[in-house]
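Appendix B. One record, verbatim.
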Amino acid sequence: MQNKKTRIVLFIAIPLTVFVIVYVAFAAFFQKHFCFGTTIDGISVGGYGIEKVEEIIRQEVEGYSLQLVMREGAAEEIAGQSISLAPVFQGEIEELLEEQNGFFWPAIWLRKEKLELERVVTYEEEALEQSVKKLSCMKKENQREPENAGISEYSRKNGYELKPADYGTAINEEALVKAVEEAITVLADELDLEEAGCYQNPEVLDDNEKLLSCIEQMNQYAATVINYDFGEKSETLDGDTIHTWLSAEDNEPQIDREAVEEYVKELGKKYNTAYQPKEFDTSYGKTVTISNGFYGWRIDREEEIGQILADLAQGGTINREPVYSQRANSHGDKDYGESYVEINLTAQHLFLYKDGALVVESDFVSGKVSNGNATPTGAFGLTYKTMDAVLRGENYETPVKYWMPFAGDVGMHDATWRSKFGGNIYKTNGSHGCINLPLSVAEKIYGAIDKGYAVLVYELPGTESKAVQQQDATTVINMINTIGIVTLESEPVITGARNLYDALPDSAKAYVTNYNILTAAEAALAALKAGVDPNTQPTEQQPVDPNTQPAEQQPVDPNTQPAEQQPVDPNTQPAEQQPTDSNAQPTEQQPTDSNAQPTEQQPTDPTSGQ
C-alpha cells in the first residue's frame, strides 16, 4: 500500500518538477530574451536577445529606402545608404526587455506581443540635402509653376467662366528636406509630398468667393443689351462690344471708362447732326445748303457714359434713346422735320411752318449790312422765349413785347418803331442783327414756337423783291452814268460798274437800261490800253463819251420801260430809286416816337444789346 502511494507521488511529482524546471528555465531565458511571438516595429524578435535584436535592426536600417509619392503619379526614393543612415541604440531595447515579465512568458507568447521602438538614427545632413537636390522632381525643367484660379476669355456662348487653378509641380525645397528628415528619423516607408505640404500651391483656388463673385459680375455686364432708338435706325450695344471694356484687377471687375467714352464718341460721329451742313428745300422751290449753326441732335457724352455704366450695373435688356444735350424734330438728314421758321435774308421774308402747314409769313428787317451787323446764316434752335423784355446795348435801352433769341444775342422780336419791312431797308437801316417783325407777326410766332424750335436762316440770290431788284439796278445805272469820257483813268469806275452788274441776278439785270454804255466804255478802254485812238473809229462803234451814243444803239427800248427805270443822270431818278442812306430814309422808316430807338440801335438780347 505504501509503495502504491509512493508511486503515485512520484508520478505526479516528477512531471511537475520537470514542468517547473522547464517553466523556470524559460522564465529565466526570457529575462534576457524576448518571448516567442514578440515583434518590434513589425520585426520578429521572439527568442532573441538584445545584441541579436540590435543586429537585426541594424541590417534592416542598412537596407532602408524612403519612397516619395508625388503629384501626377510620379514617384522616387531616397536610399538610406546614400545618406549613411545608421541606427543609434541608447538602451531603448533594454527598456522594452525589462518591461517584459519572463515569468508570464506563456501569456505573452499567446497574445503575440507587438512592441514599438522609438528608434534613433543618424545620417549625414549634407548627404541628405544633396540627395534631395538630385531628385528628378527637383530639376527646374520638371517643375511647373502653380497658377491661380482665374477668369477665362469671353465667349459669346458661355461668357466668362472659371479658369481652374493649376497646382503645378514646383516644390518648396526647404519643406521637402524637412519632411524627408522627419520620415527618415522614424524610418517611414513612404512620404506623400502632397500631404507633407512640400509643393508650392496657388494663392487663389477654385472656390475663392471673391473670384467667383467677380466672374458673376462680369457676366452680368457682358449680358447687358442696350437697344438705342434713332428713329428709323437703331444701334445695339451688347457683349460683343462690352466685353472689350472689361477686365479684372485683384479679382475686382473693372470697366475701362476711356473705352466707353470712345464708344459714345463714335456714336456721336455717326448720329449727331448738330453743326452739320443741312440740305434745305426752300419755299422758293430751290434747295440751299445751310452750313452754319448748332441745330440738330447732339449726344451728351458725359451723361451717356454715366447712363451706360448705370445700365451695366442694372443688367438686362434696355431699350432707350441716348442721353441728348440737344434734340431736333426728327432723325435723318432733314432733322428739322416739318416744323421750323424759314428766314430768307435775301428776300427779307420769313415763313413759319408747323407740322408742314404754313402758320404765318411776313417781311422783316434783318441786321444792318453796311456797319457789319448782318444777321448770321445757319440752322439754329430757339434758345428761349419771353415777353416784355428790355433789350440793352451800348447807348440804348429798348423794350419789346416778344423776345425770341435763337443765335446767341440774335433773335426775333417786334419792332413797333418801324412802319415798313422788307425790301432793301436792312442794307442801310437794319437792326443790330435781329429779325425785326411787325407786332402782329411776332405775336403769332411767339404763340406757335417753343424752346428748341428750328430756325433756318439762309441767303438765296435771285429771290429779292422786284422793288429791291429795281433799286439795285438803279445803283448800277447810276454808276455807269458816272463813266463820262473814257480815259485810262476811267478803268476803276468801269471795272466797278462791271462788277456791280455781274453781281445782279438775271432778273435784275433786265432793269439796267444803259448796259450798252458800259460795253462801249469797256471797248474804248481796251482800245486806249492797246494804243489805238478810239476817236479814229466810227462813232457808233467806239464811243468816247457814252452819253453821246445814238439812241438806236441802246439795247432796251425806252418805250417798254417806265421812265423812272431808265435814268441817265442820277439826279433825274425818282427818290425811291436812289441808293439808300441811313440818314436819307423816308420819314416813315424812322422811329416816330421820341422814346423809340432807331432800328439800328435795337439790341436782340437783354444783356448783349443785339
